[in-house]
Write a structure and sequence with these properties.
The chain has helices at residues 3-8, 11-14, 26-37, 57-61, 148-159, 221-233, 312-325, 375-391, and strands spanning 81-86, 91-96, 100-107, 113-120, 133-140, 165-175, 178-187, 195-204, 208-217, 236-237, 249-254, 259-264, 267-271, 280-288, 298-305, 329-338, 341-350, 353-362, 365-373, 393-394. By secondary structure, it is α+β, with helices and mostly antiparallel strands. It has two domains: 3-46 and 96-236, Mog1/PsbP, alpha/beta/alpha sandwich (Protein Transport Mog1p, Chain A); 49-76 and 245-394, Protein Transport Mog1p, Chain A (3-Layer(aba) Sandwich). It has a 14-stranded antiparallel beta sheet, with helices on both faces. A hairpin with a 2-residue loop joins strand 17 and strand 18. The protein is elongated.
């Protein structure tokens, strides 16, 4: 489901904010409704995250009968924090490595407000109803003379008209070294849940505002607050694009996995948080942003720890056997190259989709790229996958 369609269903609740008297555009007031209402909804990213890595299923399967593959903790699992960077909106942040980062880059109905990213904690157990999260939004003003005081007054005034919100604290603070404002409030609008939220905003160059919102179930709020405060304190603002809708190549650079590559803006990046469990690190995934209702095109990238005597020939045999074990059909494999290294690829059919996997070895790791699409989309988006694979740099 497109995010714009999801947020649009809350339009009726924005009406009661339109009468607020403010010194800046009404689009600013509508931001409050978007931030406080839309972020409580069940967005598409509440689905099982491993769905995005379905084309990499055989990577984990390849360890099942490989007695030489030791279950070690690698990559993001070995780090207390992980980095998320968004060059479109000029943002860098360090977040807990077991959390997941979703690159939204989606415009709201007001055409000036953007959902930038979502950082989401894992569900604690099978009955956990609400994964704690940090939403990052940005609004571009129609004028270049909006002050933090104006912006704060408008938001606080608007909050007074939202049923279900109870303000607990409102105070000055800083965000990325800039003057900012923070509010803490409870939110009773989701049936069966009592949420507590911590929202911080700052106005940059009188022309745009960044708004960071942490939401948690009220009993869990205090337990999560220290790591959330560390995350918010780590935020840095960098140069942002003047035109967020412009299609261009973006850089994904993950020093933990040693992977750097280029990907297009019309593909959305997801960084999956993982608890230590295996020798496979699902580094990142990309899914096609356009026509999301119909498209299942996705790209996944993983690394896998190797035994000391690992070699490409043996690894390829293991991979091809693993692909067969997940009931793939029509398997074709060929020699290839990735990042200047000898590699191998396989093309096969899996669960009514078509998949291409590429893998190479460097040092004590295997690097695996996978592309999955419906049969009728496979050829259309294959050049994007090939271009992404060709841009890969392994350090």
């Amino acid at each position: 489901m497109k995010l714009e369609r999801l947020f649009a269903k809350y339009a009726p609740e924005m009406g009661n904010l339109q009468n607020s008297h403010v010194f800046i555009s009404l689009a600013l007031v509508s931001l409050v409704a978007i931030l406080t209402i839309a972020i409580t909804s069940s967005i598409p990213y509440d689905l099982a995250l491993n769905n995005y890595f379905q084309p990499l299923k055989s990577v984990e399967a390849s360890t099942q009968n490989n007695t030489n593959a030791s279950a070690v903790v690698i990559g993001a699992q070995n780090s207390a924090s992980r980095s998320y960077s968004n060059p479109v909106f000029g943002l860098n942040v360090q977040y807990p490595s077991i959390w997941s980062a979703f690159e939204l880059n989606s415009k709201f109905r007001d055409n000036v407000t953007y959902a930038v990213a979502l950082l989401r904690a894992p569900l604690e157990n099978a009955i956990d109803k609400y994964p704690e999260r940090i939403n990052i939004n940005m609004q571009k003003f129609k004028s270049n003379n909006v002050t933090l005081d104006d912006y704060t007054s408008a938001i606080l005034r608007a909050y007074q008209n939202i049923t279900g919100i109870k303000m607990l604290d409102s105070s000055p603070t800083t965000l990325a070294g800039q003057p900012a404002h923070r509010v803490v409030y409870t939110d009773d609008r989701v049936p069966g849940l009592k949420l507590m939220k911590n929202q911080v905003w700052s106005v940059i160059n009188n022309s745009k505002a960044y708004v960071i919102t942490f939401g948690a179930e009220e009993p869990k709020y205090i337990a999560y607050l220290p790591q959330v405060q560390d995350t918010i304190s780590s935020i840095k603002f960098t140069s942002a694009s003047d035109n967020p809708e412009e299609k261009r190549e973006l850089t994904f650079d993950d020093p933990i996995s040693g992977i750097k590559l280029q990907y297009p803006t019309n593909w959305t990046k997801i960084q999956i948080g993982q608890s230590p469990r295996s020798n496979v690190d699902l580094v990142t995934a990309f899914f096609h942003r356009e026509n999301q209702n119909a498209s299942i095109s996705r790209i996944g990238i993983a690394t896998q720890q190797l035994p000391q005597d690992g070699n490409l020939g043996q690894y390829t045999t293991n991979q091809l056997n693993a692909i067969k074990r997940v009931n793939a059909t029509g398997i074709q494999d060929n020699n290839d190259r990735i990042a200047g290294n000898p590699a191998h690829n396989a093309v096969f059919n899996l669960n009514n989709t078509k998949v291409m996997q590429k893998w190479t070895l460097k040092g004590d790791k295997a690097y695996i790229l996978a592309y999955q699409a419906s049969p009728d989309e496979y050829s259309k988006n294959l050049p994007t996958f090939e271009k992404l694979a060709d841009s890969l740099d392994i350090r």
